[in-house]
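quick one: NAI bound model?
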Amino acid sequence: MAKLQWGMIGGGEGSQIGPAHRLGALADGLFDLTAGALDHRPEAGREYGQRLGIAADRSYGDWKEMLEGEKKRGDDAIDLVTVATPNSTHFEITKAFLEAGFNVLCEKPMTVTVEEGEEIVKIAEKTGKVCAVNYCYTAYPMVRQARAMVANGEIGKVRCVVTEFSHGHHGDATDAENPRVRWRYDPAMAGVSGQFADCGIHALNMASFICNDEVVKLSADFASCIASRELEDDAMVNFRMAGGTVGRLWTSSVAIGRQHGFMIQIFGETGGLKWFSEQPNQLIYTPVGGRTQIIEKGEGGLYPEAERLQRVGIAHPEGFPLAVANIYCDIAAAIRGEERKDLPTAEAGARSMAAVHYSVASAKNGGEWVDARPPMFR
Ligand code: NAI
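yep, here:
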């Protein structure tokens, strides 16, 4: 089977997420990196692209040049473009590439407004192209195992979900002007929300993903612990799911001492599950009245949805870039026309945008309970 051609926008040298995409997309021999507009500085982007092995005529200075250049190539154009730029650019780039007939993997948050999120859902439906959002934590094998265990009734009806995505890496007030930190709290670059849109939506999406249920209403409390920040760096969001599950979510970027800090616990009528991103190969399972057990990746006996994602033997760490690689595997399959129900789509991206916006509104109104769903899914 021929490799698919892959292009990247953003993710330039020194960026946070760029390397994880390159390691992930290239891990399984499914894609070749053949085009890119990698940096907001055209020359730096062209130069870095060529160092990564992209041909000079496809190492573009900016995404518009890349769109035109790739359109002209007809059948020899990229099969997939990844959008890994700061948030405020996602909508414009994703829309333009989808409308031109390209498949897109967009970084989260997919857009900045709810309306834009809904528009991307409609364009993806209309064009029939793959439009995925990089909720890559959902692609860890033991997260897929948790989802399968819930779906197969192993913990009974889910009563409650508690999740945290709290780190301390933006907790130094004297580093608040660092260019890699600052845009995340600048409404012009990040949108209406800082930490919740940056990390909290991973946690909220994960709750929906594992429970296979949608968040329908929420109540939020936001704070800027570093007072100079216009957007929140700490948030607590209470939510309810369509099936009645109670949800609690805490996200913070000033939790000094927390490293990555993404944790989810699912409490059902007959058992509980816990997954922690810093120990991603292990899923903790407690049956009601029974002993707590560790379900370990590589030990065998997992559900097929989890089993197929394992690559290296038991006890060898399989971390973040390979979770991203699992997303790319699912995208490659989807591009080739196979159904991939676990792939995070534009719908998940739009639901997150609604949760972000309505959380901001709720926080401004003293934590008032609000509908969390985008109007198109009410
Ligand atoms: P960063 O600030 O470290 O890097 C951004 C990169 O994009 C830089 O190379 C910059 O030169 C380039 N860039 C900026 N504007 C551009 C433009 N108009 N055209 C081409 N290149 C452009 O940012 P980071 O942390 O890599 O975040 C990028 C995106 O990835 C954000 O939307 C962020 O939310 C998301 N992200 C997702 C993660 C996940 O777990 N899925 C983890 C980290 C970031």
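Residues 70 and 145 are 39 Å apart (CA to CA).
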